[in-house]
Design a protein that fits this description.
Radius of gyration: 16 Å
Oligomer: single chain
Number of strands: 10
Shape: globular
Length: 218
């Protein structure tokens, strides 16, 4: 797996502030609990050298902002070990610059190491309001059999190159129909997208059901 799980590779301009207070935190928490129960988000000493894995985000106003200023709330870096998150465990990304490998954020904790990937999704398609990054060996290994879009295997996670690769998927694949894609260069990494939280979350659950109903392979 290229790079270390959970390591922030972008330049971060961060302003420490108080807890994030947004109505959508309840929905993020609900889906995080469901994904954690399925082993797709969390922290396990026997996986990824014990680092936390998986992150969720949701776009917030202003929804008519320029592409690089499409703000979103995202789970904080290395919060996977927590069973329940509070307003202290999220970060508000208010802008980003792929060319400069830069993320501007504020909140009580640093944003997830995958923030640029989330931002790239929101930048490419303004209709997408939710992004769930999960880890599943079953889904990752069966991505081709599930006919899911896959990023190129030589591109590591959490980098501008990955963000540009996400944009390529939107241009050349049916990712808007599948609502989920595999990160070819990020072992077990899967990203679900949706106009609603249900659309993103159900894309993960449906794909997982397809694999498990066939005994772990297709």
């Amino acid at each position: 797996m290229p790079g270390q799980e959970g390591a922030i590779r972008f330049n971060l301009q961060f302003e420490p502030t108080g807890p994030i207070n947004e109505a959508i935190l309840g929905t993020l928490a609900h889906w995080r609990q469901r994904l954690m129960a399925a082993g797709l988000v969390g922290q396990d000493p026997d996986r990824y050298d014990g680092y936390g894995f998986g992150n969720l985000s949701c776009r917030v106003r202003p929804f008519n902002a320029l592409p690089s200023q499409r703000a979103f709330i995202i789970t904080g870096s290395q919060t996977g070990y927590k069973q329940f998150l509070t307003g202290q465990d999220y970060s508000h990304v208010h802008s980003f610059d792929l060319a400069k490998n830069l993320v501007n954020a504020h909140g009580p904790t640093h944003p997830s190491s995958e923030s640029l990937t989330h931002g790239a999704v929101y930048m490419v398609d303004p209709s997408i309001r939710w992004v769930f990054h999960v880890h599943s060996q079953l889904l990752w290994k069966n991505a081709k059999n599930l006919h899911l879009p896959i990023t190129q295997s030589n591109i590591p996670q959490g980098t501008p190159e990955m963000a540009y690769e996400v944009a390529r998927l939107f241009e050349t694949t049916a990712v808007l129909q599948t609502h989920i894609f595999a990160m070819g260069g990020h072992e077990d990494g899967m990203v679900a997208i949706g106009r609603t939280a249900e659309e993103a979350g159900n894309a993960v659950m449906h794909a997982l059901k397809q694999v498990t109903s066939r005994g772990g392979g297709i």
